[in-house]
Structure formats: C-alpha cells, structure tokens
C-alpha cells in the first residue's frame, strides 16, 4: 500500500519575521511593569531608576514601531494570500476548461 505523505510547506520570510516580532513584543511587554517599581513613594527616581526608565521608554517606542510594522505585515500577508487564492482558483478553472477542450478534440469524428 503506497503512502501519500503530505507536502511540506515551508514558512515564508514574512511569516518568520512576523512570528519573531510577536515574540519580541511579548518579551518587552513583560519588562514594562518595571516602570512602577522604579518610582519611590514620593515620586522621585534614583539615578539607576532614571536610567532604567529611559531605557524602558526607548524600548517602548521601538515596540510601538514594531507593532505598527507587524500590523502592516499582517495586512500585506492577508492581501497576498487572498490574491494567491484568487489566482489558484483561476488556474483551476483554466485547467478544467483546457481538459474539456482536450476531451472534445480527442473525440473521434463520425462520417
């Protein structure tokens, strides 16, 4: 009995980038609660707290930029996927029509 293995479909570059950006987003969001720990009860920050706050604020701005990039990538992937599906459907329809024409051409002519 022959086996019919499924075709291995490798992820696209954009899918790899998208998953990496999502992982980075999650990791950075876990760091953001440190902002609350850096402030004293009076609201003042130490030098270390100030330096950490600046680093976290820069990370947060980069995170926002990456989130916008990820959303753009998701939109592009969705557009490309729908276009690809439409082309595949059109290709299937063309192939069906070619098969019908080929079948009609191969019918013997009766005298």
Order of helices and strands: HHH
Which structural class best describes the helix and strand composition?
Answer: mainly alpha
Strand content: under 5%
Oligomerization category of the chains in this entry: single chain
Helical content class: over 70%
**Which ranges are low-confidence, i.e. pLDDT below 50, for 5 or more consecutive residues?**
none
Shape: rod-shaped
Topology, number of strands: 0
List the helices and strands and how they pair.
Blueprint: H1 13-31, H2 34-37, H3 47-105
Helix pairs in contact: 1-3
Provide structural commentary.
With 111 residues, the chain is mainly α. Helices cover 74% and strands 0% of the residues. The chain contains 3 helices and no strands. The protein has helices at 13-31, 34-37, 47-105. α1 packs antiparallel against α3. The protein is rod-shaped, with a radius of gyration of 28 Å. It starts with 12 loop residues before the first helix and ends in a 6-residue tail after the last helix. The model has no long low-confidence stretch (mean pLDDT 80).
Overview features:
single chain; 111 residues; mainly alpha; 0% strand
Task: Give a summary of the structure in a few sentences.
The protein is mainly alpha-helical and 111 residues long.
């Amino acid at each position: 009995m022959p086996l019919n293995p499924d075709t291995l479909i490798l992820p696209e570059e954009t899918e790899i980038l998208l998953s990496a950006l999502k992982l980075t987003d999650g990791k950075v969001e876990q760091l953001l609660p440190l902002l609350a720990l850096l402030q004293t009860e009076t609201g003042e920050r130490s030098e270390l707290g100030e330096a950490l706050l600046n680093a976290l604020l820069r990370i947060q701005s980069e995170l926002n930029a990456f989130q916008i990039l990820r959303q753009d990538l998701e939109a592009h992937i969705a557009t490309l996927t729908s276009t690809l599906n439409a082309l595949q459907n059109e290709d299937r329809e063309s192939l069906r029509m070619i098969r019908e024409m080929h079948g009609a051409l191969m019918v013997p002519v009766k005298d």
